[in-house]
Design goal:
Number of helices: 29
Structural class: alpha/beta
Strand order of the largest sheet: 4-12-11-10-9-8-7-5
Strand content: 5-15%
Length: about 675
């Protein structure tokens, strides 16, 4: 490989004119471009954009790379409704979506029949096949000779439907056991499954919420005539969501005026120095004219123990926070909750590489209360996650209090996190995510209610604010401390910024001092142990949360703990992907549907993982998360393949681990900037 690369570069150097080479080198030295050793540059690809776009100096190579990929993607991307193609940026909103049933076997064997041939209650009317011969005649070829689930547990629950079935079935298609490994009374390794009776009661709206209903009556959110089911609460929440959506334009303008900085560094409250209270924010959010309020520093306290009629000692004691499990968050490495890619197999990979705290993907509280299986799947926990929490998102005290009581009674977690940083429009317009930061009265009702119900600590994840120029998290974190929150994690960007520009760690440090003694974790732009050290030294942050850095290089946790740059080889990286595939087959299943689900989630991860640049290729380690590399080749063929931004190359990597993809399989990442086809 070394000789082939040298010969190719020598040939290119003789064929390229000095002007073209000088133009490319000017791009390589432009701001925003990661410096790569010259012997690893892929001149063949670097010169392609120059042939179509000469003299475009001054912009980063990432820009040329994106333009070139945009041309290739525009030819494949389906046109919009007007029949026109747009430049490749933003999300792949029209990316092909395949239902799980499209990737299943043509003949699907009945799950009940698979466990016990006489247990199917539908009999001849069952929509699945009860014929083993018919299934075996149409089953795709096995993918390998060894089944990870069978080797680890001595039994594969998918039997003959497993894509590795030949290693644990006999000539009569009967599933065999490995007595050396199999233990009938073994405890399940995955926790927090939704009980069927609970799901049924939730769907029929018959689940009782006595603790949360008592709290809601105390704050006037639930009348004494309303029952303890969640039907009336959901109806009320839907009405309030409509109000928030209609008045969102007014609320956004006021929310971001909570804090501004003057030239001398002092903090000014509100626009032109006017104080805004929690009640004023709430009134504006609901479309009313703000009243003359008390100051934000001394808001009108909410009395959760206040109720109509006489208040007994029993009533007061139940409303007060109970002794709950205490966790030591200091100096821990926190893997951020990541939508789609932060699944259980990925968290297991990060846990094995040094992550201390893990958290499930964001789950919507309303969907959990409706008993949706897909939403409850986000709460599952592996036994290796010794410090695990779940993150829920909502905008109303009724929904969040009910959800807290439901989680407290049904799942095993070490903490519950409230998402107050989600920037997407669908959540924000309904008053959740970042919007809840500015609705302090409602935010207080949510937090106090959940703390009074939960037996575990409550944490909050938030951003600096809504708009870049008007951060106000500094004024919110002291309230969170006073309300009893155990930990705050702060992403150093606003909703408006999303992931543009660098995270403001100076502002994070200011918030950490304002939150003391409550611990505050910082989050943003950590891709090496040097980044983690620089953001911790001389600051009051109690720890760091890592999000995109863990997606690009999950071994960052090892680097931080060992204080070194790990020049990981391509074969070591492939082994990490093999671990993910094994964990995925164990979690999602080793049948055809489970294999393809594992493949799809691996591809979502590869859309971030390919951005990693090996340490041995960099001119000046470490890699910075805001710098984009030019085209380069790796030290071997596998490393070059892993650095490709082409979706087809990612599919090739999955085929090394999960066998050939189906003929009808298609994939595009969520964001166009992540890849081209």
């Amino acid at each position: 490989m070394e000789e082939n690369r040298s010969e190719e570069q020598t040939v290119l150097a003789t064929e390229v004119s000095p002007g073209e080479k000088e133009a490319v080198e000017s791009v390589l030295s432009a701001p925003g471009v990661l410096r790569i050793k010259e012997e690893f540059l892929d001149w063949k690809k670097l010169l392609k954009p120059r042939q179509h776009q000469s003299g475009a100096g001054g912009s980063s190579q990432a820009g040329h790379r994106g333009d070139n990929r945009a041309e290739e993607q525009d030819r494949d991307e389906p046109p919009n409704k007007k029949g026109k193609w747009k430049k490749a940026k933003g999300q792949n909103k029209r990316r092909p979506h395949q239902k799980p049933s499209e990737l299943c076997d043509r003949v699907r064997l009945c799950p009940s029949f698979l466990k016990d041939p006489g247990s199917c209650q539908f009999g001849e009317k069952c929509r699945f096949s009860h014929s083993v011969e018919e299934y075996m005649a149409n089953k795709p070829a096995d993918l390998g000779d060894t089944c990870y689930v069978f080797d680890k547990y001595g039994r594969c629950p998918f039997g003959i439907t497993c894509r590795f079935a030949k290693c644990h079935t006999d000539d009569k298609n009967q599933t065999t056991l490995n007595p050396n490994v199999y233990t009938p009374d073994a405890k399940p390794t995955t926790l927090n499954n939704l009980p069927k009776d609970v799901q049924t009661s939730l769907r029929k709206k018959k689940y009782k919420f006595p603790k949360s209903d008592k709290y809601l009556r105390a704050i006037g959110k639930l009348s004494s005539t309303q029952g303890s089911d969640n039907k009336c609460v959901e109806n009320k929440s839907s009405e309030e969501e409509v109000k928030v959506t209609e008045g969102s334009s007014n609320s956004v303008n006021l929310i971001n005026d909570v804090q501004t900085k003057t030239e001398d560094g002092k903090v000014s409250n509100g626009r032109n120095g006017d104080d805004l209270s929690t009640q004023g924010l709430q009134d504006c959010t609901e479309g009313a004219v703000p009243k003359t309020p008390p100051t934000v520093e001394d808001p009108a306290p909410m009395d959760p123990g206040k109720a109509s009629g006489s208040v007994t000692d029993e009533d007061t004691i139940k409303m007060m926070p109970r002794e709950r499990k205490k966790l030591d968050f200091s100096n821990k490495l926190y893997l951020a909750p990541l939508t789609t890619v932060g699944n259980l197999p990925f968290r297991r990979v990060c846990k094995g590489l040094g992550a201390d705290i893990t958290c499930g993907e964001m789950a919507m509280a309303t969907n959990l209360l409706q008993g949706q299986s897909s939403e409850w799947a986000l709460l599952r926990r592996h036994q290796s996650e010794d410090m695990f929490g779940v993150q829920i998102c909502g905008s109303h005290p009724e929904v969040m209090a009910h959800c807290a009581e439901l989680l407290n009674e049904t799942i095993s977690v070490d903490f519950v996190d409230v998402n107050v940083g989600c920037p997407i429009d669908l959540v924000f317009q309904r008053g959740g995510g970042c919007a809840l930061m500015g609705r302090l009265t409602k935010f207080e009702q949510v937090v106090r209610g959940m703390i009074g119900i939960l037996d575990v600590p409550l944490t909050v994840k938030m951003r600096t604010g809504i708009y870049e120029e008007k951060p106000f998290a500094y004024r919110v974190v002291p309230h969170l401390r006073d309300w009893g929150v155990s930990l705050v994690t702060l992403h150093g960007r606003s909703r408006e910024q999303r992931y543009t520009k660098l995270a403001d760690w100076d502002y994070i440090d200011e918030c950490a001092r304002a939150a003391s003694p409550m611990p505050l974790f910082g989050n943003g732009d950590i891709l090496s142990y040097e980044d983690a050290n620089r953001h911790r030294e001389g600051r009051d942050v109690a720890g760091v949360m890592i999000a995109r850095g863990a997606l690009i290089k999950p071994w960052i946790f090892t680097e931080i703990k060992e204080q070194r740059h790990w020049d990981i080889s391509s074969h070591e990286r492939l082994q990490i992907l093999r671990d993910f595939s094994n964990f995925g087959l164990e979690h999602w299943g080793s049948d055809t549907q489970g294999v393809e689900k594992t493949r799809r989630f691996m591809l979502e991860w590869l859309s971030f993982l390919y951005r990693y640049v090996p340490v041995g290729i960099l001119e000046q380690p470490p890699q910075k998360i805001n710098l984009r590399p030019p085209y380069f080749v790796g030290r071997d063929e596998l490393e070059t393949l892993m650095a490709s931004g082409n979706c087809a190359d990612w599919v090739k990597i999955t085929e090394m681990l999960l066998g050939p993809a189906p003929d009808n399989f298609t994939f595009l990442p969520k964001h166009k900037a992540n890849s081209y086809r």
